[in-house]
Amino acid sequence: MVIGDVMLDAYLWGKVDRISPEAPVPIVAIQKRESRLGGAANVAINIRAMGATAILCSVVGDDRNGEELKALMHDIGMECDGIVSSSERVTTVKTRVIGNNHQLLRVDDEVIHELSAKERSELTTRILQLIDSSKPDVVIFEDYDKGVLGEELILKIVSVCNNKGIPTAVDPKKKNFLSYKNVSLFKPNLHELKTGLKIEVEKPFAINIEESTRQFREEHHIKTLMVTLSEAGVFYCEGNKSEVIPAHIRNISDVSGAGDTVISVASLCLALNLSSAMTAALANLAGGLVCEKVGVVPIDKQQLLEESKQIKL
Fold first, then answer.
1. C-alpha–C-alpha distance, residues 118 and 148, integer Å
2. Of residues 143, 171, 254, 260, which has the active-site annotation?
């Protein structure tokens, strides 16, 4: 189950061969328009790409973009039972302008205020019903600070999951960073870790992150901390064991969506009760692979399998 902020990723693909006479900006001659599922929905797509079933829970606007998002879910065979439509919000849309296979501009259409009491109640009820009926193997909180996730909902769902023995994984952002307690896996990137805890972290990461986060991990009862470090790889810590797994050399085209892939693969590893070391290694490899593609794209399961064999994970 994936709970969090869903959005549409809209793309305008085109060719650039001249600069505008009106301003020093490139002119993009549009050749293709495309809409994809993004945000928490992209996590669900990565879950599906790995061969698992994804149950997506969120709130969208009662608008044309919300209908398009649900239609895209329907097109790939994903149920919309966990999607609440609200007249109080607009569906988040991120429009990326791609010229000559390079992202030139992004335009965001969104609201980021917290859910109303009515919206929160309806979403919580849907989630609890789906937990009872579907019995998920892992619950993922995919937080983009767009208002769907708040402390009340987070604490309620984590408590229910712990009582039912369901592991929980978190991909946090700043606003709710300190609201996640008693979770199985907590996966910020380095920037989110530093802003969330208001700390500075320098190299060597393996020592400094472990020391800087010890109190936070103990007070919040976080079983495993995993921090993505961009080109430096990924750090993980469980109990007294901590390690940095280096990144693999890649031809980076676009980092969009890499964090979604990392939390998706890590959560499936968590559901399968794999070790923290194996979880971090596979997630690290998967995140690097999607960075070789332009735009937000899901992980290729067969490619991940083959590369994991080559490096003998």
1. 12
2. 260
18 in a domain, yes or no? Answer: no
Q: Which residues of the chain have pLDDT under 70?
A: 249-257, 291-296
Which residues sit opposite 28 in a β-bridge? Answer: 16
- Over the range 6-38, which residues count as b (16 or more CB within 10 Å of their CB) and which as e? bbbbbbbbbebeeeeeeeeebebeeeeeebbbb
Q: Which amino acid is at 254?
A: D
Paired residues of 169 in beta bridges: 140, 185
273-306 tens-digit pLDDT? 999 999 999 999 998 787 666 556 788 899 888 8
- Cα 170 versus chain centre, distance: 9
CATH number, domain with residue 201: 3.40.1190.20
Q: Taking the CB of residue 51, how many other CB atoms lie within 10 A of it?
A: 8
Concerning whether 5 is annotated as a catalytic residue, the answer is no
